[in-house]
Amino acid sequence: MASVHESLYFNPMLTNGVVHANVFGVRDWVTPHKMALLVLLSELGRAGAQLGLLERRRLNRLLLPLLQGPDMALSRLRKAIEECCPHLAGSVHIRLKLMAEGELKDMEQFFDDLSDSFSGTEPEVHKTSVVGLFLRHMILAYNKLSFSQVYKLYTALQQYFQKDEKKDGADENEMELTNPEELDGRMEKEELDGPLREEEIACSGPLSQKQAEYFLSQQASLLKNDETKALAPASLQKELNNLLKFNPDFAEAHYLSYLNSLRVQDVFSSTHSLLHYFDRLILTGAESKSNGDEGYGRSLRYAALNLAALHCRFGHYQQAELALQEAIRIAQESNDHVCLQHCLSWLYILEQKIFDSCVLLEHSVNKSLHFGLPYLASLGIQSLVQQRAFAGKAANKLMDALKDSDLLHWKHSLSELIDISIAQKTAIWRLYGRSTMALQQAQTLLSMNSLEAVNVGVQQNNTESFAVVLCHLAELHAEQGYFAAASEILKHLKERFPPNSQHAQLWMLFDQKIQFERAMNDGRYHVADSLVAGITALNSIEGVYRKAIVLKAQNQMSEAHKLLQKLLIHCQKIKNTEMVIRVLLSTAELYWRSSCHTIALPVLLQALALAREYSLQYLASETVLNLAFSQLILGIPEQALNILHMAIEPVLAHGAVLDKGCAMFLVAKCQVASAASYTPQKKTEALESAILNLNEAKTYFAKVDCKEQLRDVLYFQARLFHTLGKPQERNKCAMLFRQLHQELPAHGVPLINAFK
C-alpha cells in the first residue's frame, strides 16, 4: 500500500517549484555564450516581419531556457536555433564570425548598438520585459569592465568561436571517412540526445545568481515530479560541489545535495548536507530577514524536525525520537503551532512502530483542520484510512472517509494528494479482494491530468502513487494470464523509475513475484527457488512465505512446516492479518498432503474467522473453497457442493485465473463424488456437467500455462470419458496427459490430495 507520509518532509526550497535563493553573491557578467545570445536577440529584432509566426513562436519558447540556463557550447546553441529557424542560425553564425575575426572595436560597436533597441516611440524591446532586463544587465555589466577585462572577454569570444570551427572541421573530415549507414546512425543518436535537455548541460564554471537559482529550481522540480529527467545522482552532486566551491554558504545548494543523497539512500551524506543547509541558513541570516526575530529559532526547530524525518526514513527510530523531542521543545517555546502539527504527525509514525494507536492521529487531524493546514489534515485522514483498512473496517466507511479528504484536495488543488488518495483506494480494493474495483481506480489515476503547472517536457506522474498503481496493474494483468501486457507495464515502470530511483523497489518486488508465480505454474521449482533470494531482499516476509511454498511443492513437508510456523508467529506479532491467513491456508494444505485431514479443519476455520473479522472477502472465499475440499476428502461431497455455491461467485468475479481454474476443478470433483449415489441417468448428467466444468478449468489453466493442473484435469477427463463409454475422447485426453506427464516430474502425491 502506498506510503502517505513521504511528503511530510519540510521542503523550504520547493514553493510552487521556485527556489528562494537570496544568498548567492555572484553577480551577472558577460560571457561568450551570453554574447551569442545578444547576437541572437539583435538578429531577431532585425528580421522583424520576415520571420513567420510559427518560427517566431518557436524562438520565443527557446529564449527563456537559454537566458536562464547555464552556458553551453556554440555548436549546441546553433543546433537549437537551427531547429527553430535555419536562416536565423546562419545570420547569428556570420555575425559572430565577423566579430571574432575582426577587431576589438567591432565588439565595442556591437554593445553600443544594443542600447538602440530601447530607443524610439515604439522600441523593439520593452525595458521591463524578460529580454529587456537581460539586455540591460549585459550592457551594465559590460560598461563596468576595465580595459583589460574587455580584452580578456574578446579573447574568450575568439576561443569560443574557434573551438566551434575546429569541431565543425573535424566533423566534416569524419563524415568523408564514414560510410552512409554509420553516419545515419550517428545522426539519429545526436537527434535523440537533443540540444534542449538542460539536465545534460554541465555547469563548467561559476554561475551567476540567476543561473544558479534556475539550475537549482529546475533540478529540485525534476526530483519532485520527474526524477528520470533530472541529472544522475553522481553528475548532480558534481555540479553542486562545483557551485559550493565558489560559494560554500549557498544554503539551497546544500539542501538539494540532501535531496540528491536521499535518492541513493546515503545516510552520511544526506545528514551532512541537511545540517550544513540549516547552518548556512542561520549564518547568512536568510531566515531572519524573511521571518523577523523568529527566523533563528524557526531554523533550529525545522532542522530538528527534518533530522527526525531523516532518521525515521532510514529506520533509526531512537535517534528520530530524540530529534523529534528537541523539535517539539523548541516549537513549544516559540508557540509555533504549524511546526507542532508536523511534529505530531511524525510522532504518530514513530509510535506506530511500537503499538497501534489512532489517538495521536485523530488529534493531529483535528488540530490541522483548526489551524488551516489542509495538507497535513488530508495526510492524517489517509493514514487513518490505511490503519483502519488493516483493522478490518468496512470498505464503505473507508471510502466515505476518503471522499471527505478528496473534498479537501479539490478545494485546495492538492494534486499530489489526489493521486495518493486514488492509489490508496486501489490498494484497499486489492486488500479486500475486489480486483475489478482496483482496476477501475488504477485506470482513473492513469488517465488523470495533473493540476500543477510544470515545465515543458516534465511529467507530473513520476511519483510514488503512480508507481504503486502501475505495479498493481501489472499484477492484475499477470493474475488474469496477460503476461505480455504485464511485461509491457513493468518495462514502462523500469523506464519511468530507473533502478537508482527511490521508488524502484516497488516494481522490483512485483517483477520478482510475477516471475515466481510463472515459474511455479510451469513447474520450474528450481527457477522459483532462485527468485526467493531477490524477493527476500525486498520484502523479508514475502520471501520467507515464497520459500515455504517452494519447499511444499518439492515435497519437503517438515522444512516447509517449520518455516510456516515461524512466519505465523512473526506475522501474528506484527499483526499482518493477510499474511497470517495465507500462512494458515498453506499449513492446511501441508496437512492434506500428509494425510492429516482432520487436523486441517480447525486451521481452516481459524483462517475463515480472521478473514471475515477483517472483511477480507476474497481470502474468505478462498478459505471456504479449502473447507469444501476438506469435506470432499472426508467423504461428504454433497455438503462440499452446498458451500461451494456460496464461495465460488466472488472467485469467478474477482479472482485470479489460476484460482478460477482450481475452483471449477473442485466443483467437478465434488460432482463426480456426489454422483456415486445417483440413478444411472442422473449420474450420466452429473458426469457430463463435470466434464463441462473440467473444460472450463482446462481453459483457465492453459491461460496461465499451469501444466501440472492441466495434467490432472486431463487425467480426470480421461477417466470420466471412459466411464461414459466415449473411447475417442478418452484416448485424446490420455494422449495429451501422457505428453504432459513425460514433461513434468512425478512427485508421488495422490491426485485427490491437492486442491491447488
From TrEMBL:
Keywords: Cell cycle, Cell division, Cytoplasm, Cytoskeleton, Mitosis, Nucleus, Phosphoprotein, Repeat, TPR repeat, Ubl conjugation pathway
Sequence ranges assigned to domain Anaphase-promoting complex subunit in this UniProt record: 254-353
Pathway terms, separated by semicolons: Protein modification; protein ubiquitination
Entry annotated with the keyword rRNA-binding: no
Gene Ontology biological process: anaphase-promoting complex-dependent catabolic process; cell division; positive regulation of mitotic metaphase/anaphase transition; protein K11-linked ubiquitination
GO cellular component: anaphase-promoting complex; spindle
Main location as per UniProt: cytoplasm
Segments forming domain Anaphase-promoting complex subunit 5 N-terminal: 30-167
Subcellular location field: Cytoplasm, Cytoskeleton, Spindle; Nucleus
Family: Belongs to the APC5 family.
Function: Component of the anaphase promoting complex/cyclosome (APC/C), a cell cycle-regulated E3 ubiquitin ligase that controls progression through mitosis and the G1 phase of the cell cycle. The APC/C complex acts by mediating ubiquitination and subsequent degradation of target proteins: it mainly mediates the formation of 'Lys-11'-linked polyubiquitin chains and, to a lower extent, the formation of 'Lys-48'- and 'Lys-63'-linked polyubiquitin chains. The APC/C complex catalyzes assembly of branched 'Lys-11'-/'Lys-48'-linked branched ubiquitin chains on target proteins.
Name used for this protein in its record: Anaphase-promoting complex subunit 5
Organism taxonomic ancestry: Eukaryota, Metazoa, Chordata, Craniata, Vertebrata
Gene designation per UniProt: Anapc5
